[in-house]
UniProtKB/TrEMBL annotation:
Gene3D superfamilies: Vaccinia Virus protein VP39 (3.40.50.150). This is Class I SAM-dependent methyltransferase. It comes from the Bacteria.
Length: 271
């Protein structure tokens, strides 16, 4: 076998850490998940425990019963832990497997989904852009890459969805009762953006305006943080291209503490 591409991550993980992301994928990426006779999804860099791969399998199979899921890790010990889990399960997870690998994605067919979370934090920005390109090139034509970062318990997260043609959307998500201001999500920006949160950059302007909308929406706090978030997003949509279609946005997803915009709104390489 060729040497896996990539670097070993810290491996930090926990049950339900990626629940918010999984539910968003299940709700918004159904066409991709159901494409083909035996669609394949990958949990890339799942960490020291196989729990997030198992959760991805469970949540996505609910919307795509034929979906197969492969957990990929560089560390042989982590792969062995996943395989040991399957042995103990007694065949309770048909279609779930674990294998050693990295960004080369050692799977027999192009995946319809690659979920890569908390994988690129240790890379330089230029390397992160390169990994995006490499992973996009390995997708099924209908596939998507969902790459991002969340905190240790999944209460704050930012992720980018990419297709074969490039980045499509960016999503900000938070556990609203614990959120002081939207710009607190800046520390969870993907590696391609985290060093761009400075004056003059689009993502900085977005977060600055989001904080302003959050402040204006403060009176809605008497109805709870969810009402304040919805009011702030509604204000933000007056000047930023918030995706309001129910598929990505609108009150259904806003109520969950999420907001999605086209990637072009924050693209540091854009015109």
């Amino acid at each position: 076998m060729q040497k896996p591409q990539g670097e070993v991550t810290r491996g930090t993980t926990a049950p339900n850490r990626l629940r918010r992301i999984d539910r968003w994928i299940a709700a918004t990426q159904r066409d991709a998940l159901r494409s083909g006779e035996r669609p394949l999804a990958i949990d890339l860099g799942y960490g020291a425990s196989p729990v997030t791969a198992v959760e991805l399998y469970t949540r996505l199979r609910a919307v795509s019963p034929k979906l197969e899921v492969v957990g990929i890790e560089i560390e042989p010990e982590r792969v062995a832990a996943g395989q040991a889990f399957l042995e103990r399960s007694g065949g309770a997870f048909p279609g779930l497997s674990f294998r050693r690998g990295g960004f080369e994605l050692p799977v027999p067919q192009p995946p319809v989904l690659v979920r890569a979370f908390n994988v690129l934090r240790q890379y330089e920005e230029a390397a992160a852009w390169k990994v995006w390109d490499e992973l996009r090139a390995r997708l099924d034509p209908a596939g998507v890459l969902v790459e991002g970062t969340c905190d240790e318990i999944g209460r704050r997260a930012v992720w980018v969805t990419l297709g074969a043609e490039g980045p499509r959307t960016i999503t900000f998500a938070a556990h609203l009762p614990a959120l002081e201001r939207p710009s607190d999500l800046a520390e969870r920006l993907p590696k391609t953006l985290i060093h761009r949160n400075i004056p003059g950059e689009r993502v900085h302007a977005l977060l600055t305006d989001f904080d302003r909308c959050w402040a204006v929406a403060a009176p809605q706090s008497v109805f709870g943080p969810r009402a304040r978030w919805i009011a702030a997003v509604t204000l933000l949509a007056q000047t930023w291209p918030v995706l309001a279609h129910p598929h990505y946005g609108g009150r259904t997803r806003w109520r969950l503490g999420e907001v999605t915009l086209p990637w072009a709104a924050v693209d540091p390489r854009g015109a």
